[in-house]
Amino acid sequence: MKQMKKVLCAALALLIDSFVAKADTPDYREGMDFTDVQPALDCLITQVAQALTAQKPGFLIEFRQNYISPNMRKYGNMFRVSDCPNSALRNRIGIAAPMLCGILDTSLRALRDEPGFWWMTYRAAWKQNVKSALLPGVIFGAAMSAVFFSLYFTDLHTMSDSAIIFSIIGILLFISMILLVLVQIPLMQLTFFQMVRNALMVFIRLTGKTLLASLLIAVYYILATGFFPSSLLPLMILNTWFPVLLSLMLLYKDLDAIFQIESRKSAQ
Hints:
mainly alpha; two-stranded parallel sheet; 10 helices; 2 strands
């Protein structure tokens, strides 16, 4: 408890607006640990964050708008807009910044393994997975075409409420199977029927999360279709990667525990 009080006192000491070097800031002299404010601040906040999370994993450390960047994720886990009461514009801009930083951080992590060789990595992945993806692509593509064809010629006004609910559940189940099968292709060399069996087992184990991930994908395409052609530009930018990214972010931790993705990668 005594150690926890010391940690909390150190955390409370950081409740100031910013650390900057000013004209009257003393020059470096013997006895100082750092020659500049920035590395000193990095060391201070890192030690505070480590001490807090060591005492209680998942401890919430908040940063306001001025502190947000992808690099700040190692210091905190909750980001918000700086104080701006009744400022609609400032709130919108402030909310967008953390989201953009999240996308940037995700992209940078994807490029970090082989910086500067993204296209070469993508081509290698394409060649590696194209044969394994042919059969699932044909089967799921044909099934998806049949689903869309039937929906296009179905008058929803003539369907009962129970029929609509069962149709929605069926579509979510179908999307879940596609997602869980296709995610195995880059990870393992399995037959189509082995991937389907794995997908069924994963779905039974992660029913709630898988349905939620499928719902994200379904809502994305419903909105894109409903607002077409206004949604054409966002579709050109976000395409299919954005809803898949959101879904995999929701499922990845559990998929890693099941398929040992990180362990396989480290072994390679």
